[in-house]
Amino acid sequence: MKTIIALHKHWYTADALKVVVCDDVIKIDLEDGLFTFEALGDLHAAFLRISTWYSLLYVVVDCWIDLRMKDDEIDFLLSNKKMVEGLRQFHHAISHYQGDPMDSELMTFLEQEESEVWVRKTHQAFKNYIEKHLPIEEMFAFVLRK
């Protein structure tokens, strides 16, 4: 149970940012066909939020691999070694100082075909697993009785 709770903590941290990222509505103001400075800033901020979500999701993937947990859906997604390694490198590029702000480790994952689809499916697969194996409703009921 502790293992699933620990996994949930890391997944929930990533999910908290994903909710913000997915609810973000970016409006690009065009001025004579050019991006405004404010719109470019908004786009960059959105990119940073997405990058942080991806990086936090790698922590969950890394926990899963280290703990040797098993689930058909998750294991199928993580069998794509190119995506897992790309996300690991992406995490490294986001979480550690890089002299080049558009480091190749960062761009390699983003440029992989369907990487954003894989991230969303992987995030959802972890959600499905946690909801299936962690008795969240029972835990809330217990807390509310106290």
CA(first)-CA(last) distance: 21 Å
Unreliable residue stretches:
none
SSE sequence, one letter per element: HEEHHHHHH
Number of domains: 1
The best one-word shape is: globular
Q: Number of DSSP helices?
A: 7
Overall pLDDT confidence: 84
Task: Please provide the count of β strands.
Answer: 2
**Helicity range of the residues?**
over 70%
Q: What kind of sheet is the major sheet?
A: 2 strands, antiparallel
Oligomer: single chain
Strand order of the largest sheet: 1-2
| Beta-strand percent range | under 5%
Class inferred from helices and paired strands: mainly alpha
The radius of gyration over CA amounts to 18 Å
Helix and strand topology:
Layout lengths: L1 H22 L6 E2 L2 E2 L1 H31 L4 H7 L2 H15 L8 H8 L3 H19 L2 H10 L1
Antiparallel strand pairs: 1-2
Helix pairs in contact: 1-2, 1-6, 2-4, 3-6, 4-5
In short:
This protein is mainly α and 146 residues long.
Describe the overall structure.
This protein has helices at 2-23, 37-67, 72-78, 81-95, 104-111, 115-133, 136-145, and strands at residues 30-31, 34-35. A hairpin with a 2-residue loop joins strand 1 (30-31) and strand 2. Helix 1 (2-23) packs antiparallel against helix 2 (37-67), helix 2 packs across helix 4 and helix 3 packs antiparallel against helix 6 (115-133). The longest helix has 31 residues, at 37-67. It is 77% helix and 3% strand. The chain is mainly α. The model has no long low-confidence stretch (mean pLDDT 84). It has a two-stranded antiparallel sheet. The protein is built from seven helices and two strands; from the N terminus they run H-E-E-H-H-H-H-H-H. It has one domain (2-145).
